[in-house]
């Protein structure tokens, strides 16, 4: 029995874009979907009411590495799982923790059995294996788990990329086997997605995808994107994997992207995306608007009584001015981060809503052209 | 014509406590009232919706010194005043800026004309006079302004306290004269309260109050409290001033107090209070609850699934556990400050609500006894 069920409800006649419904144990999610990132069991600055209530977020991402380190997955299990711990009613997707091991922690050792690493907080030694990261994610009670993968840095040789890709496939098989065994005993539905790797080499991406398809998973992730490679290559890697991956399963492009890139990924058959950009950039003073990026500290906004985005209907934009947000930002006020994050996440969700509507009404090719034209204008 | 109008609606038969209604240009406020502090045009972490909507805050305090320094009162005036700038629909009380000049800024020089000081942000030299701080507060569009006063440190000699008190009275007369002249031209209603000073000397407090009563002001503040003196003296100073101040005008005890002290001040005839404690302590990990203070980082809350306060109905308490808040606090998450502040402010407002209800129903003496008994139990 599938742990999550994906239903394609509309397809674009010209591109690979589709609109779907992803049914999970914690609700049904309209796709394509953007998932806000709740690293440490919180989307920074936003409450459940902001996210589920006002913004209508149906699924968010939490980081296994961070939660494993603090407060610990066993504590979260004892507290009734991550949904209950963070008071989140809708779906949760967790990564495997592998990416943070590679990007955050010092001193790590990769073997065929897994990866040994030191906590970035206290230096304690830990090991993640394909099996253990499934167990950690099951302790969290995630709706969608990721298999442990190795994400090589960019650039990397074809030889190393191939080695990492092959290890990723072996780990995915082990994680899958372990997950299927656990599923016989664990309550609830928890899908495991393997991750396509292969750096910027289309042949490796294709081989990886083909090997993973054999697992018959409920969905597939495409990882190793947005790690420094040119954007044209990221999109090419998605294309290489996508033509192999089954059309009836959701595809999740990990860690992307900029607002103007979202439609590009969708046009290549991507159904799910996540990115820290809306929240992190908000805190750093960058607001995404329907008229482009707004850098709030600029002197030109000093007495600007307009909302950040005149076409946005979020709480921040209906209530506060650029001048006020600039004052809060320059004063280091918490409320700035709260209001800016709320707006930026809303902007991403609005874009996804536009994309989904365009696909549903058969107008996605026109929508994509308009996004591309706006990008050219902005250059 | 009075700029704010105060109406006593119930009096305690045994104490000096009373319940009232304070009518301002931005709404009517039930008293006794606690005013959350919005130093830099924001109560840290809380939006207008949190404050006016969920918490029902009818009046908040903003700091003239901070807003004068950044973003500047002229900017706020051009943006339509502080209410509009910070999107706040209800009443605003501003202090004169004097207290921050004495507590925050370096290098200051007090003369009979006013006080010269350097900005704590950039070292720029500024002068506050009784007239100029009225003008700054009128530029902000405050509903209730404070006259410039000199708040001496504690302890201080009787001789210096007397000198500072006499200067405070002279400044209050000048501020009052200037304010009355301005009121002939400025739109809206903006009351000016003079401030009773006199350190911990009852004779000075009485003399100061008597001199200020001659101004026939719309209300009176009692300043120089909670600057390090023993609490028993703070309360005695309120008593000394209160017996002189007119019963038909609101009395505002500045910068107090701890939760268990609120009823003590009210029992001595105080109608308005403000304090940074609920918000500042929240951020520092101290939660005020109906069962006493809770230090969220304590290990005992690690797996405590209960809300911070089991009898509280605030959003934080209805939705989140001690274990989760502890995790957020230890992780340095913004959401911790947001949720904790929301709870602590609610706790203060709930206490004021209890106090007001007790006065209205004639049960304030019993209420006060129960608060005192709880304090003894806690010791």
UniProtKB/TrEMBL annotation, chains A, B:
It is an enzyme of class 2 (transferase). It comes from the Bacteria. Belongs to the queuine tRNA-ribosyltransferase family. HAMAP family: Q_tRNA_Tgt. Catalyzes the base-exchange of a guanine (G) residue with the queuine precursor 7-aminomethyl-7-deazaguanine (PreQ1) at position 34 (anticodon wobble position) in tRNAs with GU(N) anticodons (tRNA-Asp, -Asn, -His and -Tyr). Catalysis occurs through a double-displacement mechanism. The nucleophile active site attacks the C1' of nucleotide 34 to detach the guanine base from the RNA, forming a covalent enzyme-RNA intermediate. The proton acceptor active site deprotonates the incoming PreQ1, allowing a nucleophilic attack on the C1' of the ribose to form the product. Its EC number is 2.4.2.29. Binds 1 zinc ion per subunit. SUPFAM superfamilies: tRNA-guanine transglycosylase. Pathway: tRNA modification; tRNA-queuosine biosynthesis. GO terms for cellular component: cytosol. Residues 15-372 form the tRNA-guanine(15) transglycosylase-like domain. Pfam families: TGT. Keywords: Glycosyltransferase, Metal-binding, Queuosine biosynthesis, Transferase, tRNA processing, Zinc. Residues 255-261 are annotated as: RNA binding. Its cofactor is Zn(2+). It catalyses: 7-aminomethyl-7-carbaguanine + guanosine(34) in tRNA = 7-aminomethyl-7-carbaguanosine(34) in tRNA + guanine. This is Queuine tRNA-ribosyltransferase. Homodimer. Within each dimer, one monomer is responsible for RNA recognition and catalysis, while the other monomer binds to the replacement base PreQ1. Coiled coil: none annotated. The gene is tgt. The active site is at residues 95, 274. Substrate binds at residues 95-99, 149, 197, 224. Zn(2+) binds at residues 312, 314, 317, 343. One of its GO terms (molecular function) is metal ion binding. GO terms for biological process: tRNA queuosine(34) biosynthetic process.
């Amino acid at each position: 029995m599938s742990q999550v069920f994906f239903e394609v409800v509309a397809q674009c006649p010209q591109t690979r874009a589709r609109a779907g419904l992803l049914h999970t144990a914690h609700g049904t999610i309209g796709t394509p979907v953007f998932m806000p990132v709740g690293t440490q069991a919180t989307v920074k600055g936003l409450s459940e009411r902001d996210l589920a209530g006002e913004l209508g977020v149906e699924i968010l991402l939490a980081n296994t590495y961070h939660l494993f380190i603090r407060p610990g997955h066993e504590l979260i299990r004892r507290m009734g799982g991550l949904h209950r711990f963070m008071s989140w009613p809708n779906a949760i997707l967790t990564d495997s923790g592998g990416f943070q091991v590679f990007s955050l922690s010092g001193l790590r050792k990769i073997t065929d059995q897994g990866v040994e690493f030191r906590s970035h907080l206290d230096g304690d030694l830990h090991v993640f294996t394909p099996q253990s990261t499934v167990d950690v994610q099951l302790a969290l009670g995630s709706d969608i788990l990721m298999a442990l993968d190795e994400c090589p840095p960019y650039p990397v040789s074809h030889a190393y990329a191939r080695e990492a890709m092959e290890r990723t496939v072996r780990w995915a098989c082990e994680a899958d086997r372990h997950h299927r065994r656990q599923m016989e005993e664990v309550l609830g539905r928890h899908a495991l997605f393997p991750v396509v790797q292969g750096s910027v080499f289309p042949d490796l991406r294709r081989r990886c995808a083909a090997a993973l398809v054999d697992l018959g998973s409920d969905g597939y992730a495409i990882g190793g994107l947005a790690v420094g490679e040119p954007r044209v290559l990221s999109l090419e890697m998605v294309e290489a994997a996508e033509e192999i991956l089954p059309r009836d399963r959701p595809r999740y492009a990990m860690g992307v992207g900029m607002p103007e890139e979202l439609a590009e990924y969708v046009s290549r058959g991507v159904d799910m995306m996540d990115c820290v950009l809306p929240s992190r950039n908000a805190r750093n003073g960058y607001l995404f608007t329907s008229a482009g990026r707004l850098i709030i500290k600029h002197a030109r906004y000093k007495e600007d009584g307009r909302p950040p985005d005149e076409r946005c209907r979020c709480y921040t934009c209906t209530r506060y001015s650029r001048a006020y947000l600039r004052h809060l930002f320059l004063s280091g006020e918490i409320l700035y981060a709260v209001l800016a994050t709320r707006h930026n996440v809303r902007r991403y969700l609005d874009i996804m809503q536009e994309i989904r509507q365009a696909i549903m009404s058969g107008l996605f090719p026109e929508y994509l052209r308009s996004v591309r034209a706006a990008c050219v204008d902005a250059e």
